[in-house]
From TrEMBL:
This is ABC-type quaternary amine transporter. It comes from Sediminihabitans luteus. Residues 4-234 form the ABC transporter domain. It is an enzyme of class 7 (translocase). Keywords: ATP-binding, Cell membrane, Ion transport, Iron, Iron transport, Membrane, Nucleotide-binding, Transport. GO terms for molecular function: ABC-type ferric iron transporter activity; ABC-type quaternary ammonium compound transporting activity; ATP binding; ATP hydrolysis activity. It holds the Pfam family ABC_tran.
Length: 359
């Protein structure tokens, strides 16, 4: 099979097995995200593919050729890290041209390629800027252009966005995907952020404790997580038994049933601005008469409102509820303009569009 082929890969440090019998294929032109919690072995696997870490077992092949014994600089792979590590004494163009000089491209060809790449990463016209004057996001764009410049046959990216703030990360993740597609680059992208993985990758490989749990395109992974661990890691917040199935309840899988009882909604709820907590003085008294747990004869549960926040115009209500796994605080969405007050007794129900069958 063309591209990257990893079989039975094992990476060990003293007593720790960081990567445990991993098999993975990345086709030419494909972007694959390695997604998993901190310490699960993502970086170790990436480093083993790069040749920076020895394999204690298994093989790494490119287009069928075993890379055992091939040193890092002869693999034709590019690397990009969280901290792009630009050359501070060179301008933007000088940084991007680095790998092209190593390849022996003449000045005119270098300048043309640097111009193209700055365009691809959204920094057209930045060539003469000193890297010291760039923002964190701009620096990572330069680092990306520099990694793409030598046209690596595989680009390995280790958490390239994690040093940036959330809003910037979201924007850059979209731009990163566009840049990889525009240049037809085959890439493996390490992240612990599922939104980022879903934005950047054609397929996502979920990793935990050194092992790969599931590899699938984002939509498939989201619609059919193989196990509860995968579902939890993707952001599913709870599980309920449903008609013989194990149903994972997603971030939009619970809703506050309409109508929110009279007196339990914050007056002028629609006026609560995005990101603002509902003010305390809007709280209604705790109604001890409402039992917790499943509501007989309905598809819902009685719940107590802990707090409400309006995000992107939609109230997100943290409710204390027992879906069958014990009392937990979960998030339920409410209708715009009907923000239930802290302490209110409400009924929550499943929104099946926001749920997935596990397994
Ligand atoms: N050089 C090393 N020496 C000893 N143990 C190491 C070394 N590098 C990593 N480990 C251990 O191997 C395991 C996997 O680490 P790794 O960095 O691959 O995980 P990760 O998923 O990339 O984590 P993070 O997202 O926090 O970077 C961890 O238990 C880590 O402590």
């Amino acid at each position: 099979m063309a591209g990257l082929e990893v079989r039975g890969a094992v990476v060990r440090y003293d007593g720790t097995t960081a990567v445990d019998d991993v098999a993975l294929d990345v086709a030419r032109g494909e972007v694959l995200a390695l997604l998993g919690p901190s310490g699960c072995g993502k970086s170790s696997l990436l480093r083993a593919v790069a040749g920076l870490e020895p394999l204690a077992g298994g093989t790494v092949r490119w287009d069928g050729d075993d890379l055992a014994g091939v040193p890092v600089h002869r693999r034709g792979f590019g690397l990009m890290f969280q901290d792009g590590q630009l050359f501070a004494h060179q301008d933007v163009a000088g940084n991007v041209a680095y790998g092209l000089r190593v390849q022996g491209l003449d000045r005119a060809a270098r300048a043309a390629r640097v111009g193209d790449l700055l365009d691809v990463v959204g920094l057209a016209g930045y060539g003469d800027r000193s890297v010291a004057t760039l923002s964190g996001g701009e620096k990572q764009r330069v680092a990306l252009a520099r990694s793409l410049a030598p046209q690596p046959r595989l680009l390995l990216l280790d958490e390239p966005l994690s040093a940036l703030d959330r809003a910037l990360r979201e924007r850059l993740a979209t731009d990163l995907r566009a840049a990889l597609l525009a240049t037809g680059t085959t890439a493996v992208f390490v992240t612990h952020d599922h939104d980022e993985a879903f934005t950047v990758a054609d397929r996502v490989a979920v990793m935990d404790a050194g092992r790969l749990l599931q590899v699938a395109p984002p939509a498939t992974l989201w619609a059919a997580p193989a196990t509860r661990t995968v579902a939890r890691f993707l952001g599913y917040q709870a599980f309920v038994a449903d008609d013989g199935h194990d149903l994972a309840v997603g971030p939009a899988g619970l809703r506050v049933a309409d109508p929110v009882p009279d007196g339990a909604a914050v007056p002028h709820g629609a006026a609560v601005p995005d990101g603002a907590a509902v003010p305390d003085d809007a709280a209604v008294p705790y109604d001890a008469a409402v039992p917790d747990g499943a509501v007989p004869g309905t598809d819902g549960w009685s719940a107590r409102v802990v707090r409400s926040v309006v995000r992107r115009g939609r109230p997100e209500v943290t409710v204390r509820v027992d879906l069958g796994e014990g009392v937990r605080d979960l998030v339920a969405l409410a209708a715009p303009g009907r923000v239930p007050a802290d302490g209110a007794a409400v009924r929550v129900e499943l929104d099946r569009e926001g749920c997935a069958v596990v397994g």
